[in-house]
Structures are given as structure tokens and as C-alpha cells.
Give the backbone structure.
Amino acid sequence: SIIQIYMEVKVYNNGVLDDTITVSTGLKVHKDKWDKDKAKGKDIEAKLINEKLTDYKSKTQDLLNELGFMKIECIQEYKAEINNNLKIRLTGKVQRGRVQEQISKLQTYSFEYVLNHKLENEKLSVDRKRQYKLILDHMNRHFNNSIPSMDRLTEKDMLGIKEYFIKRKIKHNTLVTRLAYVSAIVKHAIKLKIISSSPIPAKYNPAFVDGEREVLNEEECLRFIQMDDDKLSQTKKVAKYCFIMQLFTGIGYGDLADIQFGNIKENEHGSFIEKKRNKTGKPFKVYLYESEQYLQKLIELTGDEVKPINLPSIDYTNRLYKRFAKDLKINKVVTTYTLRHSFSVDWMNKGGKLEDLQKMLGHTKMQTTLIYAKISDQRLSEQMKLHQSKSILHRLPNKLKAV
């Protein structure tokens, strides 16, 4: 028979058991595979159940620790706090019959609570999580550590935080990004039903400006590729081969870091990487060819039984890229995105198709890829030369008689 698993919290009052609060975890297991407080066996199902139970116990203890620091005057209030919060803390769901009560309570939750809830419940990159936490720091500075609760934020407050960023004289696209993060937190509050309408005024978020982006030429790329491994530390060697993989395939750093064994495939055309982009969820596919040896080098340097590639944070790698550029006397700001951009520009300069580039980069919209359709002088010259070599008009005698 199948049994359901519950989490029990025993509440004592002056050393005497006062109550036992029971919350369903939503987990089920066959009776023969249950042993006191854990699933028996070494199969995947038992392992997953036990991992979830360990996580639930940790979350329950965290809640009890938090309640221990609160000024709760009576045992009934303490039990009410457990009843109201434990279910949603474990499973994200509100106790049956308490939905409206929970929604009313959430209206007093802070900007920080909503932000942390978003970080805990959405799959975000380490860099993106860092950017969200930076937004919280800025909000605290602007409001002198007294950010209004989500239900009290007004259009005036939103315009105030926008003006705060503008006064800091940050770059336009950085402003756009930060305001987008603020808006995302407000939208998450609406999703949680903490607020019913958005305080964000119309035309709050300006558009990105497509400015000049750094591109590495072939000679500069060769300087990176030809760095002597024997003179590099383990971490710098990892950065070097990440550099080459990005340059040769256009793959984003986050996607490279997140590659699983199942993403490395092979067919009659050769080896390739196929996965969904971390940033957009859009599938992409890139064939490896010459870059396969560099992927194998990364696996050799960083892989283990669980994951083929384990990379440092994008911030740390960017610092190494910039350090490499300085040592190689390349007067350009080199980041992980510089390589993705350099690959794309080189692809178009060599006559590659925009549609294929979109599939390799994993762009959701062709409009994003269209920035690489801007024809460079090199591409313009080469395309004209190719056209004239194929056109019969350009094979006529050079000297024509006037009629």
C-alpha cells in the first residue's frame, strides 16, 4: 500500500507537550520501502525522497529558528505562525482553507521578501542573482533603509528610484537593465498576489541602445590561443580554453558552464552541443569540429562523474579575460560577451547566414540577431568581389567602342 509522508512539529509549553502540528509534504512512498523517517533502498526514487525530506527538515528548522527571534507573546500565536507558514515554506502552497488569510498577510511583506522569493523559486544564473541583490542595496540607499512595503509603493516612488539611478550617471543600457530588475520584482509581487496592480508608470523602462561593441580581430585572437599552457596556472588554463570554446562556437558562458553529459551528442555529421539557453529557454545547437579538442580539454581540466564541466563564476572569468588582454597588450575590454560577439561578426564576415546564426546563438527573436547583419567594409568588399566574379557583365571586354 502507498503511504503519505507528513512533517510533524511538536510544540511544548513549559516543558509539556501542548500540540502537534502536522503538514503534508506531498510525498508518497510504498509502505514496504519506508523505514521510520526515511525511504529504504539505494534507487533513484528513494534517493530523491530522502533528499527532499532533508531539505524539508532544514526549512522547518529555519522557520522555527526565525520564530525564536520574534517577540511572540503567547503559545497560540506561535502555533498560528507555524500553521500559516510551514506549508508554504515547504511546498510553496498555502494550507487548505487559509488562502485568503495568507494573501492578506502577504500584503505586509517587504520588497526584500519578494526579491528573495523570486531568487529562491526561479532558475537564475549566479550573475543575475547578484544583480538582483545589487538592486536591493540601491533601494535601501535611496529609501534610507526604509523601503515601503510592496502594497505602499507608488508611481512617485518608482520615478524616484529611476531618478536615483540617473543621478549616478551610469551608462544608458545599465540604467535600462536595473529598471528592468525593479520592474521584475514588482511583477513578481503581483504574481504572488501581494499587490493587485503595478505602481510602475507608463514608459518607465527605456529601450536598449545598440552601441559599439568590442570585437577581437584574428591577430588578437591568435595571441590568446597561443598562450603557453606551461606558463599558466590551472585556473588560467581553464579560462583560456573557455575563451577558445566561446570564440569558436559563440556559446554563452552560462550555457558552457551548465553543459551536462546529455548535451554533448554525435550524428553522421559530427559532434555537437545541443541544449536550451539558460537565459531564454530557447534551444540552440552548435557543431564542434575543430573546437571538439578544446571541449575535451575543459572536461579533462574540470570534469567529474556528475558533470563534464565545472567552471568558476562569470565575474571571475571576466577578470581573467581582462587580465589576459592587458598582458597581451590588447587595448580592448574583453569579456565573455566579447567572444560571443566576435564569433558572430566573424560568421557574418565569412558569408554565414543570419538564420543559421540565430539557431546557434539561441536567440528567441530574429531582431536580436539582426545587429550582426550590419555590413562591415570587409564584408561589403568581399561580397562585391564575389558578385563580380560570378556576373557575366563583368567578364565583358574592358574597352568598349562608343556607339
Observations:
- Strands lie at 2-13, 16-30, 34-35, 38-39, 264-267, 270-276, 283-287.
- The mean pLDDT is 83.
- DSSP finds 16 helices and seven strands in the chain.
